């Protein structure tokens, strides 16, 4: 078990590009931390810095109580699982899992016990003699995990380990990884650009944007109280709706669209221009004329368990997404009457995008 601490960790690549702008973070013993963000936000760079595969330009990386800035990857007591598995094709799966132990001075019997235990945990016992190419993608990923487990490292690092798998297998492996991590209790850092994966796996989520940690918190905290419009738009699927709004003089309403007044329970100055955020699942469908928001149906997607309706709202035909449980049939152009509880309205500063 181990903690990982970053103190103002920074990375500038040799070409002068600053990929990480100074991140502070403490990852607790046994915690599953997920770095999530759009392509190019710096999540792989940060993970590789913890691994020692990229140098740190400024600040500190501490594993337990030891500053590891200049410690070689092999001496950091970490194990990394990659997207492309990085298995040796000419070795069988037993050999792949045993490889990292061989040059660490373990006896043959010790190696055998560790590999067989990992194979049992990962249900790979029947596949140890095969080569990686004789396995499915999911099994290969498990061998890669096995290779990490046998070393009993202080920290697991995962770099988009599921992105080469098909949708169903991704969900299965996601559950397996979570289960395994909880059982083994190994401090883990996991990189993904998939926000569903991030939400389901993380004890703590770090939403990155442009080399900065925009928000750090539990998945639910971040979903319920996104710190910025960027985070609000990135976490949650389908994405949060954003509308231009103006706070009324009595501060009890915010006006959106063509003068539609929504109830507000924020403490915000009168007359302020704001961005109003409403999650698709927080819009309520009411009987005709009962809701303040009237929007026309542009397109509908029926997913069985839920229905997504894409709507045009107001004179500017702002796009609004509505997410409803169950099956609904709407005609194209049909007007829907909607409302949203004041407690579900998010407000963001129009310039900085920060939560109000
Ligand atoms: P993705 O999801 O696409 O992998 P990421 O969030 O993991 O993205 P990084 O790979 O960490 O992003 O890259 C962060 C930024 O640093 C990007 O703008 C990238 O172009 C840049 N970058 C990465 N490696 C180098 C390098 N060796 N030299 C210069 N810039 C680099």
Automatic annotation (TrEMBL):
GO terms for molecular function: ABC-type transporter activity; ATP binding; ATP hydrolysis activity. Residues 4-235 form the ABC transporter domain. This is Glycerol-3-phosphate ABC transporter ATP-binding protein. It holds the Pfam family OB_MalK. GO terms for cellular component: ATP-binding cassette (ABC) transporter complex, substrate-binding subunit-containing. GO terms for biological process: carbohydrate transport; glycerol-3-phosphate transmembrane transport; glycerophosphodiester transmembrane transport. SUPFAM superfamilies: MOP-like, P-loop containing nucleoside triphosphate hydrolases. PANTHER family: MALTODEXTRIN IMPORT ATP-BINDING PROTEIN MSMX, SN-GLYCEROL-3-PHOSPHATE IMPORT ATP-BINDING PROTEIN UGPC. Keywords: ATP-binding, Cell inner membrane, Cell membrane, Membrane, Nucleotide-binding, Sugar transport, Translocase, Transport. It comes from Thalassospira tepidiphila MCCC 1A03514. Belongs to the ABC transporter superfamily.
């Amino acid at each position: 078990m181990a903690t990982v601490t970053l103190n103002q960790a920074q990375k500038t690549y040799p070409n002068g590009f600053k990929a990480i702008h100074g991140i502070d973070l403490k990852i607790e013993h046994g915690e599953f931390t997920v770095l999530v963000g759009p392509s190019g936000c710096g999540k792989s760079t940060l993970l590789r810095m913890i691994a020692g595969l990229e140098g740190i330009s400024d600040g500190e990386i501490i594993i337990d109580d030891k500053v590891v800035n200049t410690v070689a990857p092999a001496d950091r007591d970490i194990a990394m699982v990659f997207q492309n598995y990085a298995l040796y094709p000419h070795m069988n799966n037993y050999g792949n899992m045993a490889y990292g132990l061989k040059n660490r001075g373990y006896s043959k019997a010790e190696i055998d016990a560790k590999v067989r235990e990992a194979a049992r945990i990962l249900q790979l016992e029947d596949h140890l003699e095969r080569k990686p190419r004789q396995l499915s993608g999911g099994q290969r990923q498990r061998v890669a995990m096995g290779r990490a487990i046998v070393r009993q490292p202080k920290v697991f690092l995962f770099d988009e380990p599921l992105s080469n798998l098909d949708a169903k297998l991704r969900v299965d492996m996601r559950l397996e990884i979570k289960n395994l991590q909880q059982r083994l209790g190994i401090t883990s850092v996991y990189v993904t650009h998939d926000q569903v994966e991030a939400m389901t796996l993380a004890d703590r989520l770090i939403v990155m944007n442009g080399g900065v940690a925009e928000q750090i918190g539990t998945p639910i905290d971040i979903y319920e109280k996104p710190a910025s419009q960027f985070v609000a738009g990135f976490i949650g699927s389908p994405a949060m709706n954003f509308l231009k709004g103006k706070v009324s003089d009595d501060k009890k309403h915010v006006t959106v669209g063509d003068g539609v007044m929504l109830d507000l329970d924020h403490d915000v100055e009168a007359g302020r221009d704001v961005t109003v955020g409403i999650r698709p699942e927080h819009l309520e469908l009411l009987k005709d004329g009962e809701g303040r928001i009237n929007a026309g149906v542009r397109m509908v997607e029926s997913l069985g368990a839920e229905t997504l309706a894409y709507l045009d709202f107001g004179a500017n035909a702002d796009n609004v997404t509505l997410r409803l449980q169950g099956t609904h049939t709407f005609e194209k152009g049909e007007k829907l009457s909607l409302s949203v509880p004041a407690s579900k309205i998010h407000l963001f500063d129009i310039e900085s995008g920060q939560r109000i």
